[in-house]
Design goal:
Rossmann fold; 3 domains; 20 strands; UDP-N-acetylmuramoyl-L-alanine:D-glutamate ligase; globular; nine-stranded mixed sheet; six-stranded mixed sheet; single chain; alpha/beta; 37% helix
Length: 491
């Protein structure tokens, strides 16, 4: 049986006999721990293996009486799992298909799940008819999930955003708050392994090159994203400005009655959500959609979002389509949009100093996300670089060179970036920040020296952060602190 087969059809409820199976859990971050904790409560026989684990989590496993092995040697982990002879392998999303444990399980016909597969079977823990609204895409997933959640909450629905957003889905399944709707952010990693779920509505926000090393190429990555539409019940939401997302809907096996609903920045045709001048409108979820549109909100209602970039307006339209598919009234959508606070590190205005705006988009960890930022501003001093993970950002540099007042390059992969500037944008001034000391402070000072009133200094690294920072949040906070110090110095 491969990882996408219908394994254990009898285990389809919280009340099923989960004591009947032996499970090996791979990975011990938030996700892996939530799986182990849940299976322990269900009474399954359990072994947890991981290359690393925090002391606090290992202590809890000991208290719970869960058997575990933590060892950086993957050979030892594989041997332990082979000796354990599990009926089922549940992997954390980051565990690559090329890992020895995964290859070994496939060879032996052991089914492979993620926490999402387990949660789908346990979703009747408190609510027998709990629905899932599922969201994926290369960029914008978290913001779209948070907006959708806020719209559902504004209409009185007990909803929560979870999954890849950072809140383990199993914690929400087991929460006595009894959530009626889970807004589930799904990564391509989770979708790759996904066995079978039936979303109420689903969306692929956009598709661009990302995680190609993990998936082994663009086609497997694209196919993984498209799996989100499979068996969708009500609405398959797609991006009118990204033809690949529509192709994925067309190729999907959906449930009878499921509709394709487009979202975009232009005037919407029938069955779409979009914008007419300064109004967000719905032409999908009303009886008279052939010749009428419902007003959802004005751009003025969106003032709490700060910088209204095209990428953000696109995410707002997608969230509106998902919320409206569930029957959220226009007034509740508008209320949620008026009160929404966007999460930090996503095209976040930090300050304006001597006529220059400083924008933190540390969450732009790949070229597609950085492009969305760069497209939003006319004259930019761009702070970029970090861990490229094999990605080539030359096209990005060539495409946006006309908008660049200058560039400040940080991170371990500086050489490749500097070379791309020399070849594709030789007229753009480039400052390289060497060393690993006060990297961001130096970067911001250098950017300020290149900027003129009316410019934007934009942190949109197009790279991962772990070479010089703990994570993208740490990188964004360092940027904000450096900007603050700059503004204090100006006073």
């Amino acid at each position: 049986m491969d990882s996408h087969g219908a394994a254990f059809p009898e285990l389809n409820s919280w009340s099923s006999d989960w004591k009947s199976i032996k499970v090996a859990v791979v990975g011990l971050g938030k996700t892996g721990f939530s799986v182990a904790d849940t299976l322990k409560e269900l009474g399954s026989e359990l072994l947890v293996v991981a290359e690393s684990g925090e002391i606090e989590i290992l202590d809890i496993l000991e208290v719970l009486g869960i058997e575990f092995l933590v060892d950086p040697d993957s050979e030892k982990l594989s041997a332990a799992v082979a000796g354990y002879q599990p009926d089922l392998l549940i992997v954390s999303p980051g565990v690559a298909p090329t890992s020895q444990l995964v290859r070994q399980a496939l060879l032996e016909g052991i089914p492979i799940w993620t926490d999402v597969d387990l949660a789908w079977r346990l979703r009747d823990r408190f609510i027998p008819n709990q629905e899932w609204i599922c969201i994926t895409g290369t960029n914008g997933k978290t913001t779209t999930a948070e907006i959708t959640e806020s719209m559902l909450l504004a209409s009185g629905v007990r909803a929560v955003a979870c999954g890849n957003i950072g809140k383990p889905i199993l914690d929400c399944i087991r929460d006595p708050a009894e959530f009626e709707v889970l807004v589930v952010e799904l990564s391509s990693f989770q979708l790759h392994y996904l066995e079978s779920i039936e979303p109420f509505s689903s969306v692929v926000l956009n598709i661009a090159n990302d995680h190609l090393d993990w998936h082994g190429g663009f086609e497997p990555y694209r196919a993984a994203k498209g799996r989100i539409y499979s068996k969708t019940k009500v609405a398959c939401v797609y991006n009118l400005e990204d033809p690949v997302t529509e192709q994925l809907v067309e190729a999907a096996e959906v449930q009878d009655g499921a509709r394709a609903v487009g979202f975009g920045l232009g005037t919407p045709a029938r069955s779409n959500v979009g914008y007419v001048e300064d109004l967000l409108v719905d032409r999908a979820f009303l009886e008279e959609r052939a010749d009428k549109a419902l007003e959802i909100a004005s751009l003025q209602d969106l003032s709490s979002f700060g910088v209204l970039t095209p990428h953000l307006l696109s995410n707002i339209a997608a969230a509106t389509a998902l919320a409206r598919s569930y029957g959220v009234p226009p007034a509740a959508c508008r209320k949620a949009l008026r009160e929404f606070e966007i999460s930090p590190h996503r095209i976040q205005l930090i300050a304006e100093v001597t006529g220059v705006r400083y924008i933190n988009d540390s969450k732009a960890t790949n070229a597609h996300a950085a492009a969305a930022s760069l497209r939003s501003f006319e004259s930019v001093v761009w702070i970029l670089g970090g861990l490229l993970k094999g990605a080539d950002i030359s096209d990005l540099i060539g495409q946006f060179a006309p908008r660049l007042r200058g560039a400040v390059v940080i991170g371990v992969d500086r050489v490749a970036i500097k070379q791309a500037f020399a070849e594709l944008a030789p007229s753009v001034p480039v400052i390289e920040i060497e060393g690993s000391g006060e990297v961001m402070s130096q970067a911001v000072s250098s950017a300020a020296s290149l900027a003129s009133p009316g410019d934007v200094v934009l942190l949109a690294p197009a790279a991962a952060s772990m070479d010089q920072f703990k994570n993208y949040q740490d990188r964004g906070e360092s940027f904000a602190k450096a900007v603050h110090n700059l503004s204090v110095g100006e006073k």
